[in-house]
């Protein structure tokens, strides 16, 4: 550490009172771990707990698969494909200049070299992801994480399967462990009778977990409140005003409160407040859709159809079916065509799933960055921090994000794992 670094750390003032803007997994995990370090927290959300991307996603805890969203395979989608309403990756033909700028930078990062650089940055934080969930569970957050008795990536053909096998090789080369075995379609059906005869090859993944994300995040919120935290929902944060010794948070109900520090964990809306504090990276909503259906045989763990980009998760006696990457405004209405596209992609691959008896149709805005890396850490203000931009991995990486950010905020030292994720990069 340099002399200047030593001086900065020695003069660091530990905050006593922190506001966390955003009541999703990332925001609430940050609040919880700040409490663990003796900090008084207030969590503020314009709607409610898990109201954004945290509620209806697939709920996978799969750090072995937490890879950068910009990847070479994305470039294989032609313009005609991404403009199709049935495409797994959809861009509206009326895309704004801001969205087109984001997509241009996203495409520039979808090369093998840049994917590897981003993957190298994710590996250290991915390795600690499940440990952070275990810490929460042992400390009294009574929300279940389920061991996946089986976790299958299923394909029609052996040729289709080669894409994920190659990606797993690249993941291993980056130093990230993931245990797997290629199996036949018949073997896959023996493990999961819910798979149809269309499935001709599969990969079985080991050591994976999953949760009911909405239920888990609600229990986490209850724990924050039980430990003395305040939870203010139904009010938007209109402004964050950085002062000489504190920072004021102004909400839509006219309340202005002072805090020692503020964490911006607003997901796809992160740029709205963070831009004023030097955060120039665009955070774009990559909207995912899901719904729940009855199925004759509920799988023992998640089932993934990578070629169709459809993810299925057992939740109670129903199956949550999720998919789509729709680049639109985060507040845009649910588009039924996206639901129809997921249904038609999943229908021939699942056995005895009543895809016409759908409930809980949902859309949520994943916060995506052009380089596929989250924004975690200090902004240009020593009192304002950012935590967001995790793309598809906000559930998996939410607790470890909160744990490491709380460490940074209370010690004045940036953990090595967070160095690549500077919001000011």
TrEMBL record:
Gene3D superfamilies: D-Amino Acid Oxidase, subunit A, domain 2, FAD/NAD(P)-binding domain. Keywords: Oxidoreductase. Residues 17-407 form the FAD dependent oxidoreductase domain. One of its GO terms (cellular component) is cytoplasm. GO terms for molecular function: oxidoreductase activity. InterPro entries: FAD-dep_OxRdtase, FAD/NAD-bd_sf. PANTHER family: GLYCINE OXIDASE, SARCOSINE DEHYDROGENASE-RELATED. This is D-amino-acid dehydrogenase.
